[in-house]
Design a protein that fits this description.
The chain has 457 residues and is of the alpha/beta class. It contains 16 helices and 14 strands. It starts with a strand and ends in a 6-residue tail after the last helix.
Amino acid sequence: MQKTVNNPNDIGLLENNADTETAEMQRAVLIGVITPDISESELHISLDELERLCDTAGVIAEVRLTQSRSNPHPATYIGSGKLEETKSIIEANGINLAVVDDELSPSQIRNIEDKLGIEVIDRTMLILEIFANHAHTSEGKLQVEIAQQRYTAPRLTGKGKDMSRLGGGGGGTSGARRGAGETKLEIDRRNIKARVAALQKELAQLEVSRGVMRSRREKTGIPNISIAGYTNSGKSTLLNYLTRAGVLAENKLFATLDPTTRKLKLPNGTEVLMTDTVGLIKKLPHHLVRAFKSTLDEIIYADIILLVADISDPEHQNQIAVTKELLADMGATDKAFIIVYNKIDALTQSIGDGDNINIDNIIEVQPNTANVANTEVFISAKTGEGVDGLLTAIQSALENERRVMTFVFELNGKEQAHISSLYKNAHVSSVEYDDDTVAVTAAADERTRNMYAEFLK
């Protein structure tokens, strides 16, 4: 039903066969610019993703409008002439929202709205809105509102408009009495600054609690495995399959934002902690990255990262590249990765029943990063196919992180408990008793070695 438009005369009123609920939803035109840095095919891939973001936010993407330019117009993004064409498209199709596949300046938003006569949001605003609607924990809600307020502050116009254009969003700013000579714009900015400070104070307290929990986990010596990857790649479904975590798993972008940690016992008996993390996406707003630092740090402190990709998505290799780039920006440069190509069941269905799939012909194997183990596995978190191979890969990755060391403990109740911990978190090869001590030789990872550094022989 959606059309791509370069000339408004090419289309008429779109067929309206929607039910009452659909008729009440916002109907949008998606706008993007082809530049020397962004080809037409790349733009349409980005607009495909923008349409999925709209669907997640409850917005119907009716029409796409694209234009080729050397650069986006500094005042109106697509130029005044193209805006006139866009206005005709809007009037012909009953559209009440424009969504631009880029981050706009305050003046661009204002100028486009003045020309089109409808609400205008950019890609960042849309993502922030989705995060606001999907955050459930206190920490998640605080993180989203901080990001929203930071985004709103430089875009205030003094007209009293809320940042949220889709009916959701975080809390507003508190009222304040106007001082001598202060404009409404100055008051709004001052209120936002005060609100962000208050939110950051609340978030800092929650971050302390998260840090304490993380420290306790580290002291147990149990390896931490983070599940990272592009949004909607199946991370929550994988955690649910492995641990019965009961995390919400929907076929929508950013279905879950709040990290969930569950314990898992590997086939060899080793216990690990699996953490589902927020999905990543191209052009992820830096406001969100800053606000979600405490939860994204779960990836940084992991022993191994499962980088999950949807193999049935034609763009999965580009999505892996985007994910790796974002993880590198976060500081996860020295981690062991296991690349998990998920949804092989969907891939089978997409090419037809009975056809044979040669995975090697489908996957372009990426080179290993220096000093980082890159293992690739192919699974369906929905059906469980290939999951045994994933667990084996996790075991192997943990073994590769281990070194054979000898720990010497005194024969007393407290230190004998350490021996039990080594049996649980390391591969014990020998135990030799003396009159007052016991020497335990084991293959231990860095975390375990650090825990018992004082007992190393």
